[in-house]
Design goal:
By secondary structure, the chain is α+β, with helices and mostly antiparallel strands. The protein has one domain: Hotdog Thioesterase (Thiol Ester Dehydrase, Chain A, Roll), CATH 3.10.129.10. A 5-stranded antiparallel beta sheet has the order 1-4-5-6-3, with helices on one face. A two-stranded antiparallel sheet has the order 2-7.
């Protein structure tokens, strides 16, 4: 049996800056549930994306920023662990955490938290940077990611930690 993760997927150590975290309040809408009134499993990546988009806006890694710098960051890995169902009209919190890394990639972990504090879902995405024109992957970190990490180390995102 595979054990589902609740406490992080990516290894971190004390020398790395703390993760950048955002929390988005949400409610399960009618168009997101199946006939049983449970959030359809295909909606969970969309919930993750809502958290990741907000996090990106707050730390200079929004899709608009990517377009302005001719950069793209497609998801190359998506993993989801379902712990408890989310139900029609249920309120929950999307927690998205960007984890420090030195590579040309974004590692983001997610938790969907029910109002009672129980974990409904956890997961992660890995995004690789590519040049928008050529489609070639970046082997070294693009400037926008280097700038973000510099600001992160300087403590400019302390409100997100």
């Amino acid at each position: 049996m595979v054990h589902r993760k609740k406490n992080g997927y990516f290894k971190q150590n004390d020398q790395m800056p703390a993760s950048l975290v955002v929390q988005v309040k949400r409610r399960v809408h009618f168009n997101e549930v199946d006939i049983m009134g449970i959030a359809w499993h295909g909606r969970y990546p969309v919930y993750f994306e809502e958290g990741a988009s907000e996090l990106g806006r707050l730390c200079g890694l929004s899709y608009k920023n990517f377009y302005e710098t001719n950069l793209r960051a497609p998801i190359v890995q998506l993993h989801i662990d379902y712990h408890l169902p989310l139900r029609l009209d249920e309120k929950f919190t999307i927690k998205a955490s960007l984890l420090w890394n030195e590579g040309a990639r974004l590692n983001t972990e997610y938790a969907l938290i029910k109002q009672d504090g129980n974990i409904a879902t956890t997961g992660y995405t890995v995004q690789m940077f590519i040049d928008a024109d050529s489609g070639e992957p970046y082997l070294n970190s693009p400037i926008i990611w280097e700038q973000c990490r510099k600001r992160w180390k300087a403590g400019e995102f302390s409100c997100l930690q």
